[in-house]
Amino acid sequence: MKLIFKDQTFSFELLRTMGYAAFGGADIGECLSTAYRIEEGNFESWYEEWLKTAIRVHQEADESSKHGNKSSARDFYLRASNYYRTAEFFLHGNPEDKRILKTWRLSQSTFRRALTLLDHHWEIVTIPYEDTDLPGYLYLAGDQPAPTLIVHGGYDSTAEELYFQVVTSALEKGYHCLVFEGPGQGAVIREQRIPFRHDWEAAVTPVVDYLIKRPEVISDKIVLMGISLGGYLAPRAAAYEHRLAACIANDGLFSFQVGKIAAALGGKESEELHFNSPEMDNFIASIMAQDTGIRWGIENGQFTFSATNLEELVHKTEPFTLEGVAEKIKCPVLVCEAEHDHAFAGQPEQLYKSLRSSKTYMKFTAEDSAEEHCHFGALKLANHRIFTWLDQVLNTEAR
């Protein structure tokens, strides 16, 4: 599925941003006109044009708010938040770039302005974690105890973005929802400089500890959903956190080891590669220059793993495998697959085969218009199927 751009990465990120139109996070014309102004494959052009759109929509929000038009202000703030997030997306090649924090904070602040204008109950929460806190949002579907969905993203998403992707659908289905950011994500990497860790249960267990103390939560109906790289992180946590009633890997991911990915690109075995050699440096530089997806993947990896070079990133991602781990999961697991996933082809099936607990495989296809990574462009359909499965697993009344 190509949208405006021939470049796969630019096309997908446009689809991702525009796909939130169904949930109030975008307007199609705003996205298309922005995309037409962008120079294909140019990260700076991407930033500049999305920033222009975000600023314009932000100004509309402030103007509407000043005149007491709350519903329009809410809508403008939500879209501005998504556009700021999109603008910041390709900036991570230089972790010291001051625009990263500035633009991300604008995405967060406009989202929080929108929250104050929403009708449903929400709270900004902090989860005690080791010697610091993890940030999150708790959304309640009503004032009665209900099943609760914990949601976290993956390699690049933010807690604010997940409001569009999952939360609005969860609330409509009667689920409370707690979205949080763990190490390597959102505010945790940008403000606290805490990188990803493979033992994700260290982040999820404190969230479960927090939820079971809340009177609104049915403690034996807490579910965990991980998105994108979260398709590895969530099953990893579920293998060791057994208070979860179910786990959703959207999409499933068995391993995320940069060394093996790089080896496959070079047509070699990972042990044959010498990442600190001039030959390897030249090889990586050449493919980064030719492929925006690889360039972004390496730059964002070094940013989110706090790795100073590719060799360090390879080392830090070595433990990111569910080999010998997936079979420890006890709760029911939903493994989602996108038919034409450009990021993790073949990985969902590998995860599914390794599971020993009750499991379901859910494939989204081009015929469904949901074949892209994490089913962007067809989130209404994807969320319908996922929550139908969850209703059945939790024996809740179908909605």
UniProtKB/TrEMBL annotation:
Keyword Hydrolase: yes
Transmembrane intervals: none
Keyword Hydrolase tagged: yes
GO molecular function: hydrolase activity
Pfam families noted in UniProt: FrsA-like (PF06500)
Keywords assigned by UniProt, alphabetized: Hydrolase
InterPro entries, per the entry: AB_hydrolase_fold, FrsA-like, FrsA_esterase
Name this protein carries in UniProt: Alpha/beta hydrolase
Organism: Oceanobacillus sojae
The organism's taxonomic lineage, starting at the top: Bacteria, Bacillati, Bacillota, Bacilli, Bacillales
